[in-house]
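If it is no trouble, can you show me the amino acids of a protein and the C-alpha cells describing how it folds?
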Amino acid sequence: MNQLLKHNNMYKPAGFIYTILFMAVLSSCATSTAKTEMAGQPAAELPVFKVAAVPATTYREYNASLEGKVNVEIRPQVDGYLDKIYVDEGAYVKAGQPLFRINERTYQEQLSNASASLLAAQANEEKAAVEVSRLTPLVQNNVVSDVQLKTATAAFQAAKANVSQAQAMVSNARINLGYTLITAPVSGYIGRIPFKTGSLVGRGETQPLTLLSDINEVYAYFSMSEVDFIQFKNKVEGKTIADKVKKLPPVELVLADNSIYSEKGRIETMEGQFDKNIGAISFRAVFPNGSGLLRSGNTGRVKIPEQFAAALVIPQEATFELQDKVFVFTVGDSNKVASKPITISGRNGSYYFVEKGVQAGERVVYTGLDRLRDGAVIAPQAMSMDSLLKLKPL
C-alpha cells in the first residue's frame, strides 16, 4: 500500500505540468483563431473630414423676462365709491384719457365749505383793513392812542393769515375733487381691473385699480453667471464695464414658440452687484415694440452674438458625450482612430465651435461613431468641410 502511494506521488507533478501546457496550447490556438478572424474582416468605410477654420458667428442664450418700459400702478388718491369705469381690460389708452371716476359728492361739498370759509376770511380781512385805515389819521393827530392802532394792525395781520389758510383749504379741496377723476399718466395698455362699479376704493387699498403698461419699448431682463461674466469682461473691448456694455452688438430675442422676434435690441445696463443667492448678475436689454406683439409678463431668451474671424467648427453628429465631456474620433497614421476630448466655446445650429482639443487639418470621423473603439482601423471616405457647410449652413 505504501509503495502504491509513493508511486502516485512520483507521477503527480508531471501530470500537473502536462495539464498547464495543454491549456496554454488551447489558449494560444483560440487567440490565433480570433486574430485570424479579425484579420479577415474588412475595415469599416466611414466618412471623414478635415477640421477647418471658417468665419462664423456663435450665440450665447440667456432666459429672459419681459416688462414694459413703463409699468404704472393706477391707485386712488381719495376714498369713495367707484362710480364709473371708462375703459376695459387690455384696451390701449393715451396719456390724459379718463380711466375711473370716484363718487365726487363728498369732495364737492368740502370744496363748497372751503370756498365759503374763504369768503368769510376775506370779509374779515377787509373789515380789519378798514379799521386800520380809520385809526391811522386819528393816531397821527393824537386823537387816540397808538395802542389802538397797533391792536387793529395785529387784527388785520391775523385776518390776512386766515385768508391764506382758507385759500389753502380751497386748493386742497379742489385737488381732492380732481382726484375723483383718474386719468392715464402715460400711454399704454390697461391690465386686469379687479374692481367693479360700486366698489369702495381708497388710498389704503393694497390692490391697485389696474396696471398701465407703456410697451412701445420692452425691457428684457436676464442674468449672466460668474463664468460668463468673466468671459464677457475678457473678450469685449472697453476700459470700463459701461464701455464694454455699450460695445456689445445688437441682440436677438427668441420667443416662447422658438421663433425669432423681428426687431433686434440692445443691452443698455447691468446691475451693480451679483445676486449671492444664485451667483449671477442681471442685465437689461431693450427691444422696440411698435407692433405691440410683446407684452409685460412674456418670457423668452436673449441671444448675444459673438463673431469669430476663424473658428474651428465640427458638426455635432461627429461628436459623442462621455461623463459630461464631448469627444471626437480622429484618424491618425495607418488609418487608426483615437478618441479625443474637445473644449466647446459655443454653438450655432448643428455645429460646435472648438476652443481646444483638435487642430485645423486633423481628420475626424463624421458618422458611424457607435461602431468605433480606440485603435480600430477604418477605410476613410474623404468628404470636404465645404460640402458639409453647403448641406447645413452655419
Observations:
- The first helix runs from residue 2 to 40.
- The CA atoms of residues 130 and 220 lie 69 Å apart.
- DSSP finds six helices and 19 strands in the chain.
